[in-house]
Amino acid sequence: MTAPGREPEAVAERYARRAVADRYSLLQPDVWQTVQERQRVMLRLFARLGWTELGSRRLVEVGCGAGGNLLECLRMGFAPVHLTGIELLPERHAMACQVLPVGLTLLQGDATKAAVPDAHADVVLQATVFSSLLDDGFQQQLASTMWRWLKPGGGVLWYDFTVDNPRNRDVRGVPLARVRALFPQGRVQHQRVTLAPPLARWACRVHPALYGALNVLPPLRTHVLAWIEKPLT
């Protein structure tokens, strides 16, 4: 259990324990297939929403890391001046500052204390952040903060895994029921994505084409990509 009010420091300690490796490099066939799958689902979502011009939309990412997701957003058509990234870890924030363009806002520190105005964003993005939060109270605090930042009609764009990893006690799955509890006023659309990473790594060692063959089976997908819409009224 994390001491009350200490979850951000505990997250930093958990990340410091993780081994540095090339497991998440885009040069790995399982990684680029996972990323491309997620991009396709996101683009289809924006198309369904009728968002044909993303350059006018404001997006805030919680836990932007070294900036990879924000770079993807730029490629999709978001404008730098309408993008904000928030990163807890100073070293990752520094990396993001090196790779992202001038005009994009990057904040460092606890996202629940970030200087983001209420009703500012059309999209608040989180990708595998909540699975790293082991304190239920802090999860709810962060979710409430993200909800406050959203304009009516906007939404939380959620990507995270739903099942526990028995090999990593520093993370835990976030089931869809928990997502709904975190955002009780939200209208949730969701899709299961991402072939289970251990299986994906094994399959791609055999042949990269096996990723797609296995990923057609929904029970083998471990993540959810959800759009949690804030009602207009």
How would you describe this protein?
The chain is α/β, with parallel strands linked by helices. 38% of the residues lie in helices and 21% in strands. The chain contains eight helices and seven strands; from the N terminus they run ααβαβαββαβαβααβ. The protein has a seven-stranded mixed beta sheet with strand order 3-2-1-4-5-7-6. Helix 7 packs across helix 8. The radius of gyration is 17 Å and the shape is globular. It starts with 6 loop residues before the first helix and ends with a strand. The model has no long low-confidence stretch (mean pLDDT 94).
Spatially, the strands of the biggest sheet line up as: 3-2-1-4-5-7-6
Mean pLDDT: 94
Number of strands: 7
Q: Could you tell me how far the N terminus lies from the C terminus, measured between alpha carbons in angstroms?
A: 38 Å
Order of helices and strands: HHEHEHEEHEHEHHE
How does the overall form come out from the CA principal axes? globular
Helix content: 25-40%
Beta-strand content estimate: 15-25%
The unreliable regions are none
By secondary-structure content and strand pairing, the structural class works out as alpha/beta
For the largest beta-sheet, the strand count, sense and barrel status come to: 7 strands, mixed
What is the alpha-carbon Rg in Å? 17 Å
Number of helices: 8
